[in-house]
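Progress note, sequence design subtask.
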C-alpha cells in the first residue's frame, strides 16, 4: 500500500505518519520502484500504536520512541522490557519537584506492607510521594487507611494486567501488551475512578431537586 493508504487505514494525517518516520518511530517501507515505496499492515499497526501512546497514553515523542525501542529490541527479557517501559513512561514532560524524604519513606512502607516485590528506583515511588506532598501542601495528611485503599486498588489492577498477559501465547504479543498496557492503563484506571467517584459522592452528597427530594 502507498503511504497515503497507510495514513487512511491508521486514521491519522499523512503529515503525522511522515513525522513519525522522521523521528524513527515508523520503519521505512519497501521500495518497489524508483518512485514507489510500499507499506504493510505491520506499518498500520505501528502507527496506531504510536497514536495510542501519544494521544491516549500522554507520552511525549521521545518517550514513545523509548517504548518503541523496547518493543523492537531483540531477545530482551520480559522483566527488563517492563522496567525500561515503566521508566520511559514516567519521564515528566516538565521539570518536577523532588519529593520529600518523609513521603518517599511512607510510600516504601506502604509497598512493603502490601508485600510487593519492588526496587527502590521504581518511578512509582516518586510519583506517589509527590502526590502526598501535594496533599500535605493543602493541609491534608493522608491517613494510612486512605493510602492503603489506593494500594489495594492498585494490586487488583496489577493482577488484572498480569492475567491479561497470561491469555496471550506469542512473546511479541505479550511484550506489546505489557508495554502499551502500562501506558494506557493509567488513563483507564483514572477514567474508571472518575466514574466511581461520581457514584460515591452522589451517595454521600445526594442531589436535592427544587421540591426537596433527594435523587
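Output:
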Amino acid at each position: 500500500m502507498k503511504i497515503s493508504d497507510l495514513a487512511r487505514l491508521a486514521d491519522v494525517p499523512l503529515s503525522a505518519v511522515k513525522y513519525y518516520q522522521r523521528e524513527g518511530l515508523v520503519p521505512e517501507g519497501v521500495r518497489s520502484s524508483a518512485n514507489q515505496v510500499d507499506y504493510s499492515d505491520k506499518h498500520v499497526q505501528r502507527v496506531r500504536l504510536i497514536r495510542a501512546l501519544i494521544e491516549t497514553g500522554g507520552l511525549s515523542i521521545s518517550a514513545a520512541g523509548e517504548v518503541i525501542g523496547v518493543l523492537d529490541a531483540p531477545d530482551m527479557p520480559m522483566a527488563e522490557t517492563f522496567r525500561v517501559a515503566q521508566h520511559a513512561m514516567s519521564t515528566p514532560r516538565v521539570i518536577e519537584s523532588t519529593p520529600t524524604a518523609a513521603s518517599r519513606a511512607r510510600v516504601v512502607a506502604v509497598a512493603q506492607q502490601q508485600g510487593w516485590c519492588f526496587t527502590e528506583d521504581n518511578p512509582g515511588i516518586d510519583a506517589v510521594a509527590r502526590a502526598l506532598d501535594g496533599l500535605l501542601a493543602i493541609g491534608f495528611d493522608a491517613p494510612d487507611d486512605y493510602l492503603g485503599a489506593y494500594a489495594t486498588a492498585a494490586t487488583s489492577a496489577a493482577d488484572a494486567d498480569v492475567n491479561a498477559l497470561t491469555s496471550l501465547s506469542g512473546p511479541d504479543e505479550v511484550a506489546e501488551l505489557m508495554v502499551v498496557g502500562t501506558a494506557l492503563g493509567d488513563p483507564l484506571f483514572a477514567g474508571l475512578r472518575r466514574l466511581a467517584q461520581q457514584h460515591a459522592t452522589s451517595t454521600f452528597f445526594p442531589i436535592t431537586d427544587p421540591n426537596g427530594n433527594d435523587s
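The CA atoms of residues 108 and 120 lie 8 Å apart. Work on this subtask will continue into the next period as scheduled.
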